[in-house]
Predict the structure.
Amino acid sequence: MTGTDGAEPGTAVETHAPKPVSVGVAVISDDAVENPGFPPYRPRVSDLDPAKERQNERRIFWLFLASMVGSVLAVVAYIVFPIHEGDMGSVRLNNLFLGLGFALGLLGIGFGAVHWAKSLMHGHEEVEQRHLTRGKPETVARAGEIFTIANEESGFTRRKLIRNSLIGALALAPLSALVIFRDFAPADNPVTLLKHTLWEEGVRLARDPSGAPIKASDVTLGSVFHVIPENLHESSHPLEEKAKAAVLLMRLLPEDLNVSEGREDWNFRGIVAYSKICTHVGCPVALYEQQTHHLLCPCHQSQFDITREAAVIFGPAKRPLPQLPITVDEEGYLVARSDFHEPVGPSFWERSL
């Protein structure tokens, strides 16, 4: 009886480790592969026929002119076809003509630039060897020479028709976007809009989103409430008003509060209310650290110290959160003493306080 390898039973079988196999050695030689060089240059129609060159130049001009027409069309469409609330037909018309204007404005520039490069600019293939740029006088002179050659080959200064039409197309292309973005801004003075909210004397603090009024006894140490004005549902623009009037309500030990002069009656037995809108870019400040009494904005990590009237202790915000003066009414419900004493929201608005 033999084993699987043919050896007699009881005899030792000599094993051999596999011999290492060489993967070879790469040999690099300067003349291993001959550089084929560039294929012979094939002149284009524009290179051989001056009439075709002028024809392509006119085509590029018309493309840039179409871009200018499209940019103006977008502005006109935005004005002529306004969007009316609840009218989907006006939305479709506005989007259709606005999109056509944008498309024509951008595609005209793109097609014109590509056609210019392919039909009129210098078409020879070239290789520029990599080298270190150290800012030597020779390097600066060579860079200026390259710009001069590029200008001559592209014909930017020589082909005035194309150059001027391109400049006009590029100048008009952002116009439609500027008109639309400008319309995003409120018609009224933003300082006035942000300085006044639905809060006024006697308005009860209510839970968000239920609208249930809050008693002082409901607010325990360490708790935090998301608050809206009780009269928010009476507003014709509740979402816009909520964006300005949203408040965070917390309760601390009265001795933990560092109250400045004139604000002694802005809190009620350690209960304080601050605007929920971050003073950096308007994100909702919604994270409350119970042990440190810090409010954190999750967008850009600005932190506010509630024990020091929401002073900024970290992050890009530049001013404290506005405080809402509060007290209680005869039924024990928390109410506002007045509106905020400063504008809420981001600090980039121009303010005259």
Q: What stands out?
A: The mean pLDDT is 84. The beta strands are 205-207, 224-229, 247-251, 271-275, 287-289, 294-296, 303-305, 311-314, 326-328, 334-336. Residues 45-125+136-184 form one domain. The longest strand covers residues 224-229.
